[in-house]
Amino acid sequence: MKRVAVLIEMKDGKVKPACLGAISAAHDSDAELFALVFKGTAAASLETLQAHGIDRVIEITSQDGPIQWNADHWARAGIQALQYYNIKTLLGLASVQGKNLLSRIAALLEAPLVMDCTAVNLSEHTAVKSQFSGRAVAEFKTRGEYHLYGMRPNALSAVPSPGKAILEMFQAVLEKSKLRVLEVQQGLSDRVDLTEADIIISGGRGMENSDNFDILFECARPMSAAVGASRVAVDAGWVSHTMQVGQTGKTVSPKVYIACGISGSVQHFAGMKTAGIIMAINLDPDAAIMHKCDYAVCANLFDIIPALTRKLKEITG
Amino acid sequence: MCVKHVPDTAATIRIGTDDCIDENITFIMNPYDENAVEEAVRLKKQTIDADVIAVTLGKGTAEATLRSAMAMGADRAILVKSKSSHDSISTARALCAAIQRDGDPDIVFTGKESVDNEGFQTMFHLAACLDVPVVSNAVKFAMTDTTIRVTCEMEAGDLEHIEMETPCVIGAGKDLNQPSYPKLPDILKARKKPLTEIELSDLGIATPASRVEMIKIESIKEERYPEIIDGTADEIADTIVHVLREKAKVLDG
Ligand SMILES: Cc1cc2nc3c(=O)[nH]c(=O)nc-3n(C[C@H](O)[C@H](O)[C@H](O)COP(=O)(O)OP(=O)(O)OC[C@H]3O[C@@H](n4cnc5c(N)ncnc54)[C@H](O)[C@@H]3O)c2cc1C
Looking at CA atoms only, how far is residue A58 from chain B in angstroms? Predict the structure, then answer.
């Protein structure tokens, strides 16, 4: 039987929900589904993984025990596991960590990798992704011994497929890495990561200054949304570049994207046009975004956002 | 006189030379590559002996991008000419061959990704071809005699502090520096800086066994039909909550 592996990412001790979407990409391939996990997280993830169609959970360790975070080591250990189990197809997330690991694995195997896919066909070895900043959609075919795909987080939803998974340990043999991770410094962990959020609320020039972004953060909290920004807001120094959505920022696919005081330039759309629902709050009924969204609110964001925050707080208590 | 081969080069690579905003209209330098050029030039200012080389694979028109890199301070440039398009594996093989033919660089800077298509990968393939370590999305860079310390940005603003030896490949992130825009004299000077052209076919690169092929491309129609939400601020907020809860099903409460 064909074998397909999914590279699992964890967050706060749980399998990232976006990974479950990536697993569902392999459901109709009738291959044996492997999940590759690191750093002693197999036990914590087993139940979730088997509920979503994984047949075998492989916990990757090394001769020295659990492998601490080091992208080079993780990639090399992952390759050894693929080779040991004779797995030729690997899926992962096109998240920051996923891009890092999949690119390294692809490079070391000189294997074809399509990043940021919105759909894959594992028997045909094809993948669909957007091209030219979202203006076109292209289909790619991977040719070679291995086939690697990075799925755009949230492009596919998780599909339950209950079963029983076997838990196995795989011990990789690692040499000293040319890369040494000295320290990982935690960012602001109470904030939701943009690329994996279900809801994103973004601010643009209409926010006027840095302090006003606080009303977006306040509104985001009760609905567990991430806060994004247009390039204007970033270039003005109101918020960090990590929050920028668009051609030169992050590409996101949330279920809901709420754009506040953003005109909807082509470059901004490049980063969010695949959102499920786009909602725009803008004073100008003729702003581009007001014609390219699903819900248009022609009003002052400084009236709407505080009202929305109040309602959301009432609901979530 | 002692002859010893000592580190004295810093190469600048630009992948995905031409950032296609629109195939037929404008080509610009890939935004992150400007950060890569800037960092290499900055390093040269600190270490007397550096030779900063801009390298690219592309059509003849890619010369414009190489000239801008030289206007930003690169000393010379190498253009690997090819008319066809390449995936990241063959791009990396071509860049690797051109770089190695020129000499052994200590540091190869690239943009962290190219905004046109599958550009997250080329630098990783290049590092694998050169058999050197690689990091991406570097936002801080410092070099001592032999070691390099970089800070890379990860998820949710987490920062990873990494140490590695040269030679290495570094993917520059946006926050690494503020690219300086060349002044007219620099632009004029750049026209006279040496540019070597190499035909891809002269590099004798074997065709890779694996590749990514585009089999179909279609432009997307923007088909969204806006529904207008109006009323007082409170009514609008209620409708938004309704959409979040009932249509999008993203609220727990
Ligand atoms: C190579 C290149 C790359 C780029 N990359 C990106 C990118 O990655 N991301 C990106 O976003 N941009 C990018 N841009 C910039 C892009 O072209 C636009 O300039 C930018 O997106 C505009 O930001 P904005 O919508 O916030 O500002 P504006 O276009 O100025 O729009 C502000 C909007 O706010 C509305 N407004 C003002 N006050 C209020 C209020 N009180 N309530 C409600 N509405 C209000 C106004 O009516 C207006 O529509 C790029 C440009 C280039 C050339």
Answer: 24
